[in-house]
Amino acid sequence: MHSPQLNHTIQGQGPAILLIHGLFGSLSNLGLLARDLVQDHTVISVDLRNHGHSFHSNSMNYSVMADDLNQLLVDLNISSAMVIGHSMGGKAAMALCDIAADKVSKLIVLDMAPVAYQERRHDNVFAGLKAVIDEKPQSRKQALDCLAQHIEIDGVRQFLAKSLYSKDGYLQWLFNVEGIINSYQHIQDWAEISPFQGGTLFLKGADSDYLMPEHQAAIQKQFPNSKAHIIANTGHWLHAEKPLEVVRSIRRFINK
Question: Could you identify which of 85, 183, 216, 229 might form a hypothetical disulfide with 93, taking C-beta atoms 3.0 to 4.6 angstroms apart as the criterion?
Fold first, then answer.
């Protein structure tokens, strides 16, 4: 018995590319990349479980996320795809390489390392999400004000607000807040995978501390055929901050 199919969109024609968003995101997050890649590829954008319009589940770790992605490729009859994942989506993409290496022709990971992270970076976000649930805001402005009590950076508040929808007269979250909070340790975590021999590109935001020199050994062990490229003057949201540079790096890599 496998999980319901992930919500997804398919655009364009040509070799398949699977785009996977990060925590609190949805399939529109990598839209700036999709808009370029769709010119000569079939681009499949997914909502991971507990996100966007995909199903909600109490179980959320990289093993089940990889299974979801693999099942979608099977359902769509795609035997080979280039896989691009940001942040948590990067880890889901790396986990997919462990169970379906033959289906991943090339892997591109945006600002994430195949390691367990110790620091809890999202407690303020969780507090903001819960505040919105308690407050039941009727307008987007009310929701943003609510988030502002916990989250300093306006860009983060605007990003989260993309996942609000109106139901029963007030704004609610598309993602499964409780499921994500309860699974946060699994999302931080990582189980080492067998070496993936396919070509792999790690793209790092220069100002981000998710992908660091001390992660190099773990990367080389699990992704022996990988290279890294740094996008200058950008943080963890490199694809949103510098989409042209990120697309250029991706195209250079996939056209080799």
Answer: 85
Answer yes or no: is 1 within a domain. no
The two three-digit tokens of residue 199, written as one number: 């070509």
- Assess whether 76 and 48 both reside in one domain: yes
Residues 105 and 67 in one domain: yes
Rounded to 10°, the helix 140-148/123-135 angle is 140
Spot the catalytic one: 51, 86, 236, 239: 236
236 is catalytic: yes
53 is catalytic: no
Question: In the predicted model, what is the mean pLDDT of residues 116-121?
Answer: 90
**CATH value at residue 211:** 3.40.50.1820
Position 70 pLDDT exceeds 90:
yes
Residue 252, pLDDT > 80, answer: yes
Nearest alpha-carbon partner for 68 in 135, 6, 157:
6
C-alpha 145/C-alpha 151 separation (Å) is 10
> pLDDT band at residue 1, thresholds of 50, 70 and 90?
low
Domain that holds residue 57: 8-116+189-254
Instruction: Indicate the pTM of the whole model.
Output: 0.95
SS3 139: coil
Active site residue: 87, 163, 183, 208, which one? 87
